Known about the structure:
Blueprint: E1 9-11, E2 14-16, E3 20-22, H1 38-46, E4 52-59, H2 76-91, E5 96-101, E6 119-120, E7 129-132, E8 135-138, E9 143-144, H3 150-166, E10 171-175, H4 181-186, H5 201-219, E11 224-228, H6 242-253, E12 260-264, H7 279-285, E13 290-293, H8 298-306, E14 312-315, H9 317-321, H10 325-331
Parallel strand pairs: 3-4, 3-14, 4-5, 5-10, 6-9, 10-11, 11-12, 12-13, 13-14
Antiparallel strand pairs: 1-2, 7-8
Helix pairs in contact: 1-2, 3-5, 5-6, 6-7
Bound molecules: P-hydroxybenzoic acid.
P-hydroxybenzoic acid (PHB) binds next to loops.
EC number: 1.-.-.-
Organism: mine drainage metagenome
Family: Belongs to the NADH:flavin oxidoreductase/NADH oxidase family.
Amino acid sequence: MAIDLFSPVNLGAISLKNRMVMAPLTRNRAGEGGVPQAMNVTYYAQRASAGLIITEATPISAMAHGYPALPGIYTDAQVAGWKNVTDAVHAKGGKIVIQLWHVGRISHPSLLPNGVLPVAPSAIKPAGQAFTYQGLVDFVEPRALDASELPGIVADYVHATQCALAAGFDGVEIHAANGYLLDQFLRDGSNKRTDNYGGSIENRMRLLLDVTKAVTAVAGADKVGVRISPVNSFNDMFDSSPQALFDKVAEALSPFGLAYLHAVEGAIHSEGDVAAFDFVALRKLFKGSYIANLGYDKARGNAAIASGNADAVAYGVPFLANPDLVERYKIDAPLNQADANTFYGGTEQGYTDYPTL
Ligand code: PHB
């Protein structure tokens, strides 16, 4: 039989019963203190027929927050809350990794400890507005991190990885996409540093590689994935040569022996032209498994897998609205439509009440 979305696959040490991955989706419904609560357990457990669930982006420290009601993965209470999630997913035969997140400049003092400034590679205010508890507020100029502070950020990733393992996750995904901290270091529109973390591609990749080295040392490389978004302009992002940059990122990540590389193959939350980019070339440079994401349906997902252009395909909004997406694709059943009004924040409505077949 030909390999398709419903074929099992091993991504490093993580064995998937099918190749349909639930993409990370910010839902802003964590409990007090960033602790996952009962409705979060229900939501993830409902989607356990995915080959792999990647959790919503999850801050690794108090300074890593940039939106209301995010879960965290750095306190004991958060670990206990996530343990309920991983237990429920595992009880239904699913696999789940947590996406480790530092938002960098995409934050606001009102979301940070003692009202401090967000941190970033360079003091460049992004265009746009932060989502705060007081509503939309213009972004502020972030504080440029001193090189002496970067080991502390790496240590926060290590601590979060230890918390993730204690919470029973099957692995972790390093979020290096979508204009958040690691991506801000990668791309030259947001990184104007003159030390060895800025300038050349090698220098701009350094923080991602430092983090990858440290996280893989704790979790084992075969339980670690990395997510990138080479052409996403969301969060006021730009790079002068995305193909050169991300080809080098793929090459530099190869020797680690990661579980997977995960690419957002387009732009989210943004309008206008998307830079030309050859994702097949990127995928060939990465010597490991590759998860493709963005805009795939069943036919395109099967085609990507049959051609070898992807080992698995991540579906976001389709999984949000269809907890039983795998079953629906299997029998070509109609899909529930997603309600965008309930994507971010709120109650069980638009969260755990999408019907199964
Ligand atoms: C969002 O909140 O819209 C969001 C969060 C994390 C991402 C992308 C989008 O990686």
